[in-house]
UniProtKB/TrEMBL annotation:
It comes from Streptomyces qinzhouensis. The lineage of its organism: Bacteria, Bacillati, Actinomycetota, Actinomycetes, Kitasatosporales. Pfam families: p450. The keyword Chaperone does not apply. It comes from the Bacteria. GO terms for molecular function: heme binding; iron ion binding; monooxygenase activity; oxidoreductase activity, acting on paired donors, with incorporation or reduction of molecular oxygen. InterPro entries: Cyt_P450, Cyt_P450_B, Cyt_P450_CS, Cyt_P450_sf. Keywords: Heme, Iron, Metal-binding, Monooxygenase, Oxidoreductase. Belongs to the cytochrome P450 family. This is Cytochrome P450.
Length: 400
């Protein structure tokens, strides 16, 4: 491709327009443009949007770009979200570059292998069944976001971390406050983050003295991560894995209700991840050296936003990309990012989604939406896409 020499016309920031469908139809037009798409952050910083699948992968594997949010020019999309800044919490390793990043990654990989996750399935099934039991006991309707999608990842991670069952209610409520932006104030989220940090510190102290069969004890035993860093690592696992998973669960249930021929087919999990691409604005980067991507020269210090939802709907990479087709053979979506920061929790997420879909539709075959699909409240918090609520109903089985 020849390098475009003229400055492209910049698109407006912020990138999300309230009420717009997701992924935004504008992405189609962005992908057709020559080179990359330019935008300006409110502080004037230049940021390049990357929308084609091959170019998103090129950015995320380039050694000339950094994931460090403290670098000049990094595109900070949102300062709230309850996400602590890296300098405040050591161990927030998604914001580190190689070689510092490698030490954390190496210590954590064994915790999320396919084999390890297979061993977690019975505990995930207990969590999911317990929540469905409560829904059924409560009547013939539920909000699947509050009653299932949000608690599943939180309860699963608390069991993985070795949070004692008696504390799981506390743990779940604080993580929920942290991520449900519509129902909590910034002050409440700040308090919840502090309480969680205090709790995690205490829990680490307990595991130092009384190790168990859990992730915290195993990480401590490696000696690779200090106890202070471990708090940041745990907070990262909590935040990275909570709303992302919840949003995929709820959007996946809606998509299956609209495409019931795929209920019971495991391939629906992977296609849900691609189709919805909820973590569209997560893999943010900044160039640390001049780098050429998509024929465009990005200067050191300029921000880069690989839009994974755009890449996952690129027709050069996926046939009929806007169709929900679990039978498709292309498996190279970038919903979990790509390269050295590719999602560590992906095997766990797949198991959670698979078990939720299987148990939910098996146990409540008459599940249906309680409102027309157009009325479902879509959630854009500036970073992730999901649903605020998912009202559903079912017919109670006739009692004898
Ligand atoms: C990284 C998506 C669930 C832990 C990432 C990244 C994406 C992502 C796009 C790359 C970030 C970057 O490039 O800067 C998702 C989605 C999820 C999900 C869509 C649910 C459907 C989880 C879960 C966990 C988790 C359940 C753990 C319990 C992590 C961690 C990283 C990460 C630790 C940082 C990896 C690194 O920097 O090496 N995730 N994630 N994620 N994710 Fe996930």
């Amino acid at each position: 491709m020849t390098r475009p020499t003229t400055e492209p016309e910049a698109v407006p920031f912020p990138l999300r327009i309230p009420g717009e469908p997701f992924p935004p139809p504008r992405y189609e037009e962005y992908r057709r443009r020559e080179g990359l798409v330019l935008t300006h952050m409110p502080n004037g910083g230049r940021v390049w949007l990357v929308t084609r699948h091959a170019e998103v992968r090129a950015v995320l594997t380039s050694k000339k770009v950094s994931a460090n949010p403290d670098r000049e020019g990094f595109p900070h999309i949102s300062d709230t979200m309850g996400v602590p800044r890296q300098e405040q919490i050591p161990g927030w390793f998604v914001g580190l570059d190689s070689p510092e990043h490698d030490r954390f990654r190496k210590a954590l990989i064994p915790e999320f292998t396919v084999r390890r996750v297979r061993g977690m399935r019975p505990s995930i099934e207990r969590v999911v069944d317990g929540l469905i039991d409560s829904m059924l006991a409560a009547g013939d309707s539920a909000d699947l976001v509050a009653d299932l999608a949000l608690p599943v990842p939180s309860l699963v991670i608390s069991s993985l971390l070795g949070v004692p069952p008696v504390d799981r209610g506390f743990f779940e409520s604080r993580t929920r406050t942290l991520v449900t932006i519509r129902n909590s104030t910034e002050q409440q989220r700040d308090t919840a983050a502090k309480e969680l940090l205090r709790y995690l510190n205490r829990l680490i102290g307990i595991k130092v003295s009384w190790p168990g069969d859990d992730l915290i004890s195993r990480l401590l035993a490696t000696g690779a991560i200090s106890t202070q860093e471990l708090t940041g690592v745990l907070m990262l696992l909590l935040i990275a894995g909570h709303e992302t998973t919840a949003n995929n669960i709820s959007l996946g249930v809606v998509t299956l209700l609209l495409n019931p021929e795929w209920i019971g087919d495991r391939r629906a999990v992977e296609e849900t991840l691609r189709f919805h691409s909820v973590a569209d604005l997560v893999s943010l980067r900044v160039a640390v050296e001049d780098v050429e991507i998509g024929g465009r020269l990005i200067r050191a210090g300029e921000g880069i936003i690989p839009l994974v939802a755009a890449a996952n709907h690129d027709q050069e990479a996926f046939s009929c990309p806007h169709a929900f087709d679990p039978g498709r053979t292309e498996r190279h979506h970038v919903a979990f990012g790509y390269g050295v920061h590719q999602c560590l929790g992906q095997n766990l997420v797949r198991a959670e989604m698979e078990i939720v879909y299987q148990r939910l539709f098996e146990r409540i075959p008459a599940l249906r939406l309680a409102v027309p699909v157009e009325e479902l409240p879509l959630k854009y918090d500036g970073v992730l896409c999901g649903l605020h609520e998912l009202p559903v109903r079912w017919d109670r089985p006739a009692t004898a």
